[in-house]
């Protein structure tokens, strides 16, 4: 990490963070990393020990992670909104030290836990002498997996400096996409703008107040943004680029975003915790066709599924067998269509709905339903059926109350007009609240 700290020191006056209105320069970041590193040393945190860091985005949380990395610790970032129970996470990774930040994210308490785990992968990794980074999958399709990365290798991708931007790190710090975003912003000497929460109103307010240029978001968030209409109530003219990823983007949402932000570059991103985030290029702003790869990555399609080979791949799972083949290729489980160098993501194999042997991709159905009046959001998933195997279910959040029979009739008419009959929802459920997780990803289940 030394090269990164040296880069920060080359521009001490530049603003690295605007954290809830508080400006922190790169010079202050360097000083804080050094100060926290001394505290870590004084506590006798040893190289290769596991350290849980409980907090969310703040300059100090970031500085602590860098200080721990410089000391060769294995960093386990968790937030109070983590999608995995803390006890489950620590049962997998162990916890030699527990670092908890206060509500303001400015200072921490460090306690020795001594929670050991005889993990074969960690035992094999420690002799390298390099810092580690452990992240956890959401566990939405089974038991959460602990994913071990070489922290130096994760950061190495950003050694080549790019143009600085003012950006909001939308994904959480316990998510690979969140780590990737904050490293990308700071390695380019840009400015990280944090918000108290990731509500549509707070995000829009921060963009307007601090002239944010880049918004990395999820399709679920952009769907809510368009439904709320708040983009018309705030001055978002500073935005130059909106990136989206982590889940399939409904075409109807993309069309609405493109219409609402005609001068903004829309870019689909692609990455997984296991292989890292690839460079991407959308065919155009209104297209879901994307080309991915870049230095350090190779891609191939096998039976309609995307496989990736990466120089930035994880070391391995802490609690599961490796899913890389003998040649280092990883099955993403993402079904895709191919057109030359471009592909279009249809959905996860695990999200696929099988109706009497016919494939239904949830995002395709959701895109049609999102075009209807009075629909704020929708999640489409499969439900077991004795005859057909599965039926299509649509869980819908409305803007205003409406009888379920009326909604079902409108959904059926719209879907029959645009989709094959087996893709039409057989069941419509009205719901309240949100249909996404704390990581702003769609929850497709009952």
From TrEMBL:
<dbReference type="InterPro" id="IPR020845">
    <property type="entry name" value="AMP-binding_CS"/>
</dbReference>
<dbReference type="GO" id="GO:0006631">
    <property type="term" value="P:fatty acid metabolic process"/>
</dbReference>
<dbReference type="Pfam" id="PF13193">
    <property type="entry name" value="AMP-binding_C"/>
</dbReference>
<dbReference type="InterPro" id="IPR000873">
    <property type="entry name" value="AMP-dep_synth/lig_dom"/>
</dbReference>
<keyword id="KW-0436">Ligase</keyword>
<dbReference type="InterPro" id="IPR025110">
    <property type="entry name" value="AMP-bd_C"/>
</dbReference>
<feature type="domain" description="AMP-binding enzyme C-terminal">
    <location>
        <begin position="364"/>
        <end position="433"/>
    </location>
</feature>
<dbReference type="Pfam" id="PF00501">
    <property type="entry name" value="AMP-binding"/>
</dbReference>
<dbReference type="InterPro" id="IPR042099">
    <property type="entry name" value="ANL_N_sf"/>
</dbReference>
<protein>
    <submittedName>
        <fullName>Acyl-CoA synthetase (AMP-forming)/AMP-acid ligase II</fullName>
    </submittedName>
</protein>
<dbReference type="GO" id="GO:0031956">
    <property type="term" value="F:medium-chain fatty acid-CoA ligase activity"/>
</dbReference>
<feature type="domain" description="AMP-dependent synthetase/ligase">
    <location>
        <begin position="11"/>
        <end position="280"/>
    </location>
</feature>
<comment type="similarity">
    <text>Belongs to the ATP-dependent AMP-binding enzyme family.</text>
</comment>
<dbReference type="InterPro" id="IPR045851">
    <property type="entry name" value="AMP-bd_C_sf"/>
</dbReference>
